[in-house]
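I trust your eye. Have a critical look at both lines of this record:
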Amino acid sequence: MTTPRYPTTWDLASILPHPETAEFASVLEEYKRRLNEVADKSDRLAPIGDDARINAAWLALLQDVEQLESLAGDLSSFVGCHAAADAGNKLYRQTEAKLSALDPLRERIATNLEFALQSATDAQLAAWAKTDRWLADNRFFLEQRRKNAAMRLPKAQELLAADLAVDGIHAWGRLFDRLSGELRIPIMEKGEVVEKSVSQIRFDSPERSVRENNFYAAERAWSTIADSCADALNHLAGTRLTLYRRLGLRDHLDMPLHRNRLQRQTLEAMWQAVSDRKKCLVPYFAAKARLLGLPSLRWYDTQAPLPQANDGGAAAEVTYDEGVDTVIRAFNAFSPDLGDFAKMSVEKRWIEAENRAGKRQGAFCTGLPTLRESRVFMTFTNSFDNVSTLAHELGHAYHSWELRKQPLFLQDYPMNLAETASTFAEAVLSEDRLNTSKSRGEKLSILDHMCSDAVAYLMNIHARFVFEDNFHKERLDGEVSSSRLSELMLAAQKATYLDGLAPDGWYPDFWVSKLHFYISGLPFYNFPYTFGFLLSTGLFALAPEMGREFPERYRQLLIATGCMETEQAVQSTFGYDLSRPDFWNKSLDVVERRVGQFLELAGS
């Protein structure tokens, strides 16, 4: 076996002492002590207003909070990385739980700050911000925190809810992590049954029998924990709905819209444009089925590589070294700055990509505020989908890299804009591969990947959104059974895929296995992916006409994501109004054009 040129495991030792050491225990204990101290101080401070002494005390406390939040980010990322890389390690899970148990202290500080800001008038806040450069630099953060107060219960109830969340909503999220991390899927390989973790199961094999076997083996394994997952999903949603009702929110979308700094009109404009235009993907399904020699596609066929990929086209498998080289080359072609960043990330061992048992499923990028670094987690199983995942996560890391010199509180950006940076990086990769491809088979394979991505964002993610939307509506009347959840998922898939798959080719139990439904800290985790994909697609379409100016304009957008509302960030850097359909249709024009190219090459 050839030794990879690029490291496939990450460096965690340079971040903090190992979680099993006494040194780490000391760091954690000191963090806890300081957190308690600052939380107690925040309890005693009067609201912000005209009293210069009180305002000065809040400034000093906020600067302490900034340091603590930086350490909190380091600790959360560090322990989360260890836990993801070794899902069965009980110590790591216990340490995650210990950190989670300290979150109510952070929530207490945030609550006290937001209520203190809520009572200040616009004039008082503006006057206070002028008294110190730190305050002036963090003005957007202060204004956002004041808005957050409108999304909070009365102070005493808010603090109680934060305490209860540790063993409530967040515990249900951790339960899913444990169940999915421990789940093993028996697969027949070379006459022997091999148990694999969920992250090792592939649905992109060129052999249909392998895809089918993997799909049904995974479906059977996930079904053994379906009722427990239904419990977790019901209690996650039930907790949120109870809070929303007490807050007097319009519905279950108010909070995710607020979290994404997004107007409802913008979300509705996006989904309407998607619904109006995605019918162009249905002929793609038919053409791909024909190329695969099938009457129609089933769920597990949608990611299958085309036969042409093995005949003068792109390789059905790609090594990690080849994948890294492809990403770096593509990024360099767009911007040497982006290419240099990707190369640095790989060489400094910021990436965990090794294919081994015991890792959690999925992929993520997490930041380390103190070091101004990131870490990327994935499992590379030698497919071009993995190469796209690598580009996607490095897009996140580049976003954080561009924000590293901003004040800590202005390095936080909403998820929909986070997914813009990641899907933009995927667009850079795909376009470069298409432009440098040397054969019809290779071009067809790349266009298939592009169209498959469009299916994922415009149909799969839309199905998740419709499912969650309908589930939350039904959950208002009580718990929803696992069988009913499957019915809701099937209906959502058929509606959003426009019945484009085989009549019996759906995946009603998809809700059981999808990690994104179980993330306790972020409600409606799914729609930001579609938002990011369409925003990045539309922006990337502007690159040729803007020329050399574009990379810098894009960099400015990334910086704006930390200090502006979503619509303002795009308007101020590229001049588009996202609440109107024009921009979204510009993005969907690109999708339709790529489908047309695919159909032409496929001979449809």
